[in-house]
């Protein structure tokens, strides 16, 4: 399977790009893949006109499974899990819960986590900076119940690690400043538990090597 990933990136994006979640899923599911590296310039991928034929919005990641092209990281992760029969249960209701938590991560949490990423990057006086505390407060609405839930179970859907956990962990990584998460020790431990998995460590090492950056700089 081909996977379109970044092979160069501005430093502020090291470790935060969505190709990581796709590679992590491939690794966990035992799906061999051929990374197709794309350079990310100052305009993102908007100048890469050739790529529009593959990804309508010229974004990473994209997979090409023997001619079947799929974009959108959430859709890709669920497809890889369904294809391999790993990181997702076999029964319909169990699969629906994995879809639910994947969508919650992308639709409830990421829309507020990502502006915090930009606020911390651009500073207090930037438009994102001015809204930062508002975004932190909104996240509390999701993090308080999640914190309670994770006191009693290791992963989102219970005892099994699924693609929903890959999605949420990668979304949590967007919150660079640990102070936002410090009120939520169970969420912090959850993130660490997921990031300690050998597949994640392997993927992040390969990511750093592909970008030609020092080991540890994308952690
Ligand atoms: N909703 C998309 C977002 C993909 C996305 O924003 N990718 C970023 C990298 S993390 C990208 O390709 N940026 C370059 C650009 O937009 O030009 C997904 O989850 O796959």
Topology at a glance:
Blueprint: E1 2-8, H1 19-29, E2 34-39, E3 62-65, E4 68-71, H2 73-84, H3 92-122, H4 127-149, H5 163-173, H6 185-195, H7 198-211
Parallel strand pairs: 1-2
Antiparallel strand pairs: 1-3, 3-4
Helix pairs in contact: 1-2, 1-5, 1-7, 3-4, 3-5, 5-6
Bound molecules: glutathione.
Protein described:
- The mean pLDDT is 97.
- The protein has two domains: 2-87 and 199-211, Glutaredoxin, CATH 3.40.30.10; 92-197, Up-down Bundle (Glutathione S-transferase Yfyf (Class Pi), Chain A, domain 2).
- It has seven helices and four strands.
- The chain has helices at residues 19-29, 73-84, 92-122, 127-149, 163-173, 185-195, 198-211; strands at residues 2-8, 34-39, 62-65, 68-71.
- The chain has a four-stranded mixed sheet with strand order 2-1-3-4, with helices on one face.
- It is 52% helix and 10% strand.
- It has 219 residues and is α+β, with helices and mostly antiparallel strands.
- The radius of gyration is 17 Å and the shape is globular.
- Glutathione is lined by residues 17-18, 44-46, 58-60, 72-73.
As a whole number of angstroms, the C-alpha radius of gyration is: 17 Å
Backbone shape: globular
Percent of residues in helices comes to 40-55%
Bound molecules: glutathione
Order of helices and strands: EHEEEHHHHHH
What portion of residues belong to β-strands?
5-15%
Structure annotation, total helices: 7
Task: Say how many strands there are.
Answer: 4
CATH class of the largest domain: Mainly Alpha
What is the residue-averaged pLDDT? 97
Strand order of the largest sheet: 2-1-3-4
């Amino acid at each position: 399977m081909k996977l379109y990933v970044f092979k160069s990136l501005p430093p502020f994006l090291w470790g935060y790009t969505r190709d990581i979640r796709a590679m992590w899923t491939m690794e966990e599911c035992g799906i061999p893949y051929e990374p197709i590296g794309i350079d990310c310039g100052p305009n993102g991928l908007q100048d890469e006109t050739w790529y529009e034929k593959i990804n309508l919005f010229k974004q990473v990641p994209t997979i090409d499974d023997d001619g079947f092209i799929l974009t959108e990281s959430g859709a890709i992760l669920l497809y890889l899990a369904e294809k391999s029969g790993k990181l997702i249960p076999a029964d319909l209701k169990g699969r629906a819960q994995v879809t639910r938590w994947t969508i919650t991560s992308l639709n409830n949490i990421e829309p507020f986590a990502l502006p915090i990423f930009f606020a911390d990057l651009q500073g207090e006086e930037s438009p994102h900076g001015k809204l930062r505390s508002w975004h932190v407060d909104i996240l509390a609405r999701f993090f308080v119940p999640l914190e309670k839930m994770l006191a009693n179970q290791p992963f989102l859907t219970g005892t099994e690690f699924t693609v929903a956990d890959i999605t949420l962990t990668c979304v949590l990584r967007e919150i660079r400043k640990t102070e936002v998460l410090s009120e939520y020790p169970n969420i912090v431990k959850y993130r660490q538990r997921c990031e300690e998995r050998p597949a994640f460590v392997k993927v992040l090492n390969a990511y750093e090597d592909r970008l030609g950056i020092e080991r540890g700089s994308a952690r």
